[in-house]
Write a structure and sequence with these properties.
The complex is a heterodimer of chains A (307) and B (311). Chain A is 76% helix and 0% strand. Chain A has 307 residues and is mainly alpha-helical. Helices cover 75% and strands 0% of the residues of chain B. Chain B has twelve helices and no strands. In chain B, α10 (214-250) packs antiparallel against α12 (279-306). Chain B has helices at residues 2-20, 28-38, 40-62, 78-81, 101-137, 139-153, 157-167, 172-199, 202-209, 214-250, 262-272, 279-306. The chains are: A mainly alpha (307), B mainly alpha (311).
Amino acid sequence: MIAFILRRLAVAIPTLLVLVIISFILMKLAPGNPFIGEKTVPQAVLDNIYARYGLDKPEWQQLLEYVYNVVFRFDFGPSFQYRDRTVNDIIAQGFPVTFTYGAWAFLVATLVGVALGVVAAVRQNSWLDYLSVGFTVGAQVIPNFVMAPILVLVFTLWLRWLPGGGWNNGNWTNVIMPVIALATSYLASIARITRSSMLEVLGSNYIRTARAKGLPNWQVIFGHALRPALLPVVSYLGPVFVGMVTGSVVIDLYFSTGGIGQAFVNSALNRDYSTILGITILLGALTIAANLVVDILYAWIDPKIQL
Amino acid sequence: MLADRRIDTLAGAKAAPVVVVATKGRSLWMDAGRRFMRNRAALISLIVLLAVVVFTIVGPLLARWSIEKIDWSVMGAVLTKGNPSIATGHYFGTDEVGRDLYSRVIQGTQISLLVGIVGSLIAVLVGTIYGAIAGYFGGRLDSVMMRLVDIIYSIPYMFILILLLIIFGRSFIMLFVGIGLVSWLGMSRVVRGQTMTLRNREFVEAAVATGSKPLAVIFRHIVPNLLGIVVIYATLLIPEMILLESFISFLGLGVQEPNTSLGALISEGARTMQYGTIWQLAFPLAFFVVILFTFFFVGDGLRDALDPKDR
């Protein structure tokens, strides 16, 4: 187990470094910099500014210092745009919001998706099955940026039940639409994967044996069939996580929830390079960590993998 | 001496079936075609998809407005005068500033399809060659090549893509570069896996034994046998690429005005629907959903047709 985790870490850490270096180089390649505006600033002032942000040193040294600060002090440096705020401040403000609706969406997509898939498989060819297959086929092609406007149209403009945006300190009426918009297409995919893998497992010999022993139906399903049927679902959780992190940009923009996606787009449009870099690295690290967790989970569930 | 006799018997064995083959054989592709035709959902999807493609070609002939011409008569009164109507020539209505939505939806559909197909083609070219080489040679080369894919795969590429588009400016070329950077990864994995199973087959052994160079074996013998799985995967990749482009366009980082894509149109429509101009969302959304749906079903149908035992 430990060896397995170490082996996976041996891939994860270089990945993260590659991500940092690529982002850093891209940032340096950008023409101009945020401090040269329309007004001509005396060279002496510019020099002072560059010294303050450490831009007067050679680039490789900047990169090394940046990596050192991020890794050992968890410090992403000052924001280039807002003189009185650091990138850490900006992240600390947006992250809890994103985390709240992101975690809910992940839970909803996984739990409801699996439940729907299992029900559809167990009651194959019933109206429940057809309903769930119909829903999953439809919902799968509706991405979050289409789901969000439709939800607002129905629940805000027509029914007037829910506010069309804002965060309001995480009031449930503000959270519910972002969660649904973010979760739906993944929920559908998970339900579809669960259904087909559950059907395959239910048709296997050892399930027939379990039934022949006279086990009650629920015990066959939850005790014997569910665990192996979940394997493909677990391996899909990595992409789900990545998709949700990416989707949070859309959610933040559309619902004005003020999460980390909004900070990313704002800083992107303002050329606030240090913030872009910080957010990219943070989300990259989270993604890599999530993939690691998924891999470990997979190895733990799959009886064929010996750790 | 012994070898000669073996060749003789081989030749004899080969000569015998030639007589039998007088009845018309069915190729893999003909079989697949039959199976595809029997799949009603896939067949209908293919027809609808072709209809959409024909519409994007023929449609502009019927348009009375160009994509960027502003109809001043609806300016400021889009809700009452800009609605879909045959009389004004705006079959799909106008957008918020009075441009003809019919022409814009057609152009958006063209661009979305183009992005999907180009992205998928890049994936086919790069992914097939990369995956086939890694899978065929195996060993250390394989592990280095696939580790690289793993690394690129676990980077949240959307953020890198956004970074690219902001830093180097928004342009078609940058968009295709960005999409091309990531689209081939999945394909290379699929192809590598398939190549590894093909590598040990007799016909590859035979090709090696007759002295073919490794690259010749890959391109003459392995790649043609990968075609089925590549076609399936490429078809399923097209809607993914369309989604990716729409996502970028939705953020306002895709194609530049006055050009447009379905994602950009959906984004505009979503912003203005609260004023009651629902058609600005409905038409691009309908085209978008239809295209994605049909591609998914066609891809599914191809998988069932070409790879029946996979299910």
